[in-house]
Amino acid sequence: MELKSILSKDQVNQFFKDGFLKIESFYDKQKDIEPIQYHIYCIIGLLLKKYNIDFQQLPYSSLDFDSGYQELIAADRKIGGEVYDALKHVPSFLRLVCNEKHDAIVAQLRQTTLPGIANGGYGIRIDNPKEEKYRAGWHQDYTSQFRSLDGIVFWSPLIKITEELGPVQLCTGSHKDGLVPVHAQDPRYPDKSGAYGLVFKDEANLVRRYPIAAPLSEPGDLILIDYQTIHASGYNNSNRSRWSMQMRYFNYEEPTGIRIGWKGSFAAGNAIKEIHPELMF
User: Fold this and answer.
1) What is the dihedral of CA 7, 9, 10, 12, to 10 degrees?
2) How far apart are CA 19 and CA 155, in angstroms?
3) Element housing 272 (H / E)
């Protein structure tokens, strides 16, 4: 099936030069974003009742869709994980994951007729204020996702991202230098596990080599990130959780993906040392 090219020549060039690309107003707020926000609001309401938390949600609005969430995690931080898991099954979100415009972008950037969606590679992140345990440190998505080497992350916020909320941080041009070896557990944060526990070899000096970009964004915007671009979640220094969506696509025709059988990484239960022992140090 032939897909229509969506990105301009300048946008394509910028993606390949920087390893990421911000596209303003890519999604329709009313059609694509607000149904997801409303589902989040409803799930929070159900859990407030389930756990008998005495809090009256604000009337629904796209600006306050997360009303009651801080009260949930204040009562028990584990309830935040229940929200996170529930949101993976919301139809409005899954419809966005499978948006045909995503297929077209992958086809255009990767010159493929076979784009794929990484199972276990999509979800809605909730980065809570001043919480380090689940903050994603410096990483490349390929190492924690696999599937194929030239995948693309579709990153989009559900609230307006300010400096205080902590925008995603990107090492400009780092994708050109290939994959970086990792250690499976960051000694600085022994409570982090899985993909959150990964740390680069000589990380501080590695990151200093690149200009850091931290683009601000708002609902409807899209940031495309190359699987090999070094990036990290920003620090949330606000009093509100940072809500964002990640949807990961890959190219079936890429040789590394074919070699490993398009296997996934942590979410698929595979250890890096088993699939890519050369990436461990």
Assistant:
1) 60
2) 13
3) helix 272-275
Helix axis angle for 9-18 and 100-110, nearest 10°, is 70
Q: Which fold has domain 10-27+100-279?
A: Jelly Rolls (2.60.120)
| Dihedral sign for Cα atoms in the order 7, 8, 9, 12 | negative
Would you put residue 63 in left (φ > 0), alpha (ψ -120 to 50) or beta?
Answer: alpha
The DSSP line for 134-151 is T---SB-HHHHHBS-TT-
Return the pLDDT at 1. 58
Q: Is the pLDDT of residue 189 over 90?
A: no
E strand or H helix at 94: helix 91-97
* Cβ 145 vs Cβ 121: under 8 Å: yes
pLDDT for 128-176, tens place per residue? 999 999 999 999 999 999 999 999 999 999 999 999 999 999 999 999 9
The string of DSSP codes covering 4-41 is: ---S-HHHHHHHHHHSEEEETT-S-IIIIIHHHHHHHH
CB-hemisphere CA count at 13 Å for 20?
27
Q: Please name the residues in contact with 91: beta carbons below 8 A apart, sequence gap of 6 or more.
A: 39
Which of 150, 171, 146, 156 is CA-nearest to residue 262? 146
Task: Kindly report the backbone phi and psi dihedral angles of residue 102, in degrees, each rounded to the nearest multiple of 5, phi listed first.
Answer: -65, -45
DSSP state of 264: B
Beta bridge partners of 200: 182
| pLDDT value for 194 | 84
Helix (H, G, I), strand (E, B) or coil at 236: coil
Q: If you compute the radius of gyration of the chain from its CA atoms, what whole number of angstroms results?
A: 19
Rounded-to-integer distance, Cα 205 and Cα 210, Å: 10
